[in-house]
Every structure is written in C-alpha cells, then in structure tokens.
Specification:
Helix content of chain B: over 70%
Strand content of chain B: 5-15%
Order of helices and strands of chain A: EEEHEEHEHHHEHEHEEHH
Number of helices of chain A: 9
Strand content of chain A: 25-35%
Order of helices and strands of chain B: HEHEHEHHEHHHHH
Number of helices of chain B: 10
Strand order of the largest sheet of chain A: 6-7-8-3-9-10
Strand order of the largest sheet of chain B: 2-3-1-4
Mean pLDDT of chain A: 87
Oligomer: heterodimer
Distance between the termini of chain A: 26 Å
Number of strands of chain B: 4
Number of strands of chain A: 10
Largest interface: A-B, 16 and 13 residues
Number of domains of chain B: 2
Largest sheet of chain A: 6 strands, mixed
Shape of chain A: globular
Largest sheet of chain B: 4 strands, antiparallel
Amino acid sequence: MIHFYHVSKIYSNNIHALDDITLQVDRGEFLFLTGPSGAGKTTLLKLIYCEESPTQGEILVNGINISRIRPSQIPYLRRNIGIVFQDFKLLKDLTVSQNVAFALEVTGIRGKELKRRTWKTLRMVGLLDKMDEMPLKLSGGEQQRVAIARALINNPPILLADEPTGNLDPDISVDIINLMNNFNAWGMTVVIATHNIDLVRKYSKRVIRLKKGRTTDQMDPERLTLKPEAEASFF
Amino acid sequence: MVNGVSISIIVFSLLIFSIFLLVLSNINRLTAHWEGKILVICYVQDGLATHEVENVRKNILDMKGVKSVKYVSKSDAALLFRRLFGKQKGVLEGLDLSILPASFEVHLEQQLHRGQGLEQLARKLLQLRGITDIQYAREWITKLSTIVHLLRWGQWILGGILFLAISFIVSNTIKLTIYSRREEIEIMRLVGATSGHIQIPFLIEGLFQGASGAFLALGLLFLLYQVFLFQSGPSIKAYFGPVAFSFLPWSSVGGVISVGISLGVLGSYMSLARFLKA
C-alpha cells in the first residue's frame, strides 16, 4: 500500500530529515512509527500525504508514484488518505457535524448524501449525541474522535495519525488507538507516529523506529510478543 | 471583525484616490477651458476687396493647427469696442471708430497649445498677403502650456504612486484576512480541497469587499463634495469662473469601482497564491 525506495528528505535549511529510507506498509496493516522528537516521523507522514516532496527516492501510495505527482492531483490523492493530528485541527466556529461534513463537502457531495454519511460516521466514533455541540465544549478525547470521524468520512483506504494521543490522558489514548484498531480490523491501513512507548507496548503491531532520519530497527508482532528481552533492547 | 477592518481600509484608500481624481478632473476641465480661449488675432490691411478677404480666410483655414477662423469687420470691431465701454460709451463720442482695423480671430487646435508650433504659425500668418499685424498672448500661453504639461505628467506620476500605495495597503489587509483564516485553509487542503475550491469563496469575498469599499468611498466623496460646495460656494466659483466645480464624471466613477473590485480580487488571489504555495 505504501512503498518507500531509498527516500531522503533534506529541507532548504540543510536539515537532513530523512536519510535513505526504504520501507513497505502492506494493505490492511497497522504500523507504529516511533522515535524521539526530530527523528523524522512527521516528515515521513508528510511525504505520504504530499505536504512535502522527497529530495531523493521514489514513493508509491496506493499504486501511485507520488514522487512525480502533479500539484493539481494532490487533492485527489488526499481524499484517499485520512489524516489525524495531535492538535485535532478542528474549526472552532463549526459544530461537530459541520466539522465532519466539511471534508465531504470539498469533494462536491451535498444534501441528503452528506447528512447520511456524516450521521453514519459520527455513529461509528460514538459521537451522535454531540453532533450539534461546538468542538471547544468537548473533552480532548471527544475532539480527537471528531478529527478521526472527519478523516474517515471519505472512506479512505489509508489512515495516518501524527501523535494522535499527544494531548490526551493515558486511558483516553487507549480508547483512541482502539478506535483506530477497529478501523484497521475492517481493512483500513493505519500508520501511527508516536513516541508514547507504553501505548505501543499494549498492541502487537509492527513497529518501525526512526532515529536521526534513518530506520534503526523494525520489530514485528511475533518478536514483540515472544521475546520480551528483544523488546527491552528495542525501546 | 477582520472583514470590517479590510473594508474600512479599502474605503479610506479609495476615498483618497477619488479625492485626487475629483480635484484632477476639475483642474483638467479648467485648463481645457482656458486652452479653448487661446486665439491669435490677425489684423487685415485696409481696403481689401471681399474676395481678397475670403482668400486670406481660406489660406488661414488651410494652415496646420487652425481649428476655426472668424472674420471681424471694421464695423464689427467698432461695435465690440463700444460694447467694451458699456455704460461709459459716452466717452467715445466724437471718436472716429473707423480707424479700428478689420481682423481674423484664429482659434487653434488643442495640440498646438502644448507644442512649439504656435510661434511657427504666427510667423506664417504674418507672412500672408493682406495681414498687417498679429497679436496673441505669447508669454501667457507659454506659461499655461507649461502648467498644463506639468499637471498632466503630475497626475500620472502621483496617480501611479497613489495606486501602488493603495494596492500595497489593500493586499496586505487582505493577507491579514486570509491569515486569520489560515486554519480553515490548511484543513481544507488536508482533506483534499482543490485550489479552486479553496480560492473561489475568498475571491468572491474579495470582489464584494472591493465593490462595497468603492461604493462607500464614492458615497463619502459625494457627501464631502456637497459639504465643500456648500461651505465654499462663492469662493470656488471665483476660481473656476464659468466652469462649474463638478463631481467625478461617470467614466471616473466606473474607474473607481473597477479599481476597487480589481484590488479586492487581485489582492485576494495574490495573497492566497502565496499562502497556498507556502
């Protein structure tokens, strides 16, 4: 689903954010991307949704070579990728349902279809009773659920999350990851960038660790569950 | 809130621009009026036959830069002289007004006022058979043409500088409006909105801001114009004489509205383009 071939990213101020990354994320996979701050997790996600372009290497997303994508095609690629952020990025002047519907409206869907899909998505994230509330009246966990609903309303095959639990309590964080886990169970490819090691430990998912722009190690679920000593050295 | 600030700045900027246009259009009308008054008087030799006078008239009319020619006969000249003295025309009694010569009043094309051709024409007129002397206000015409020349260049330079300054202020104000909605734009981009989808509402908003700013500025200008006329009625008439101090012509009103709309739309477009690239 997502392929990186020897990808490097150097920013204009000569910061080497990613250095010769080669990785593959399969369709329907759930992947944690870990590493300290500045390791390149956010840059890697930004490359996937074309917010940045690679300095070197090739990236394939859902069969499309996005290293050579035309700027006019980027919006259509993003409709196939749901994105969730640490700071939720909700519009404060719109209600919960308007925030969620917003992502569908930009694709040109209006009227009954818009209402139906907004209602369905809000029910999936358990926020039907809050649909007319303003975002700032909700808890952090609820706001993140709204952001997830907005990311999912277009039924994208890929969900990217950049530190989605960074502003949340541990219990709420688990709820949020569980929610994403459910979507993964229904076939969605999920990539979560986080430095919350405790959270990563709770799930038997593949983990890629980045350090100074390089993949230092990969760990598959079997290694994680069968060899606790390997886990200790990994983290 | 930010929209209100944008519109106020557009109104204020366009009001300054419109005041400049109003003053300029009236000065232009005044100078055009003065220019229309410029004429060369050619005195005709006494005793010319009618057909000879007609020949001279035709020769003058054929000259480059001459708009029209009016013949003032000796009797017409005497009549004008009498009229000039008005109620005191008694002092003229006993005078032989037949000594006043017949003449041609030569009205000139406008381009001749601004160029150097006037003296050349005067020389040619003096060389015509049947013309004894010519008279025109050479110094006054030179001064007027210099003033008009300076005014015309000044209006372009000053207008250009003012337009650039206003464009800069308005585009920066619009940039602030867009900056205040950067979150909304960022989210629109992230959820897959095309550039057109993001830009159109802002361009429409820019159009309305520009148009409403222009209409409000013109309304305020009209109000100021009325107050100014009311406050300084007789004195302004003394300056402008027979040319009434009038409001902006329709073409300028249309121009101000077009400038307002262009500033609003272009300001939005350029600010957005920079924002979407960033």
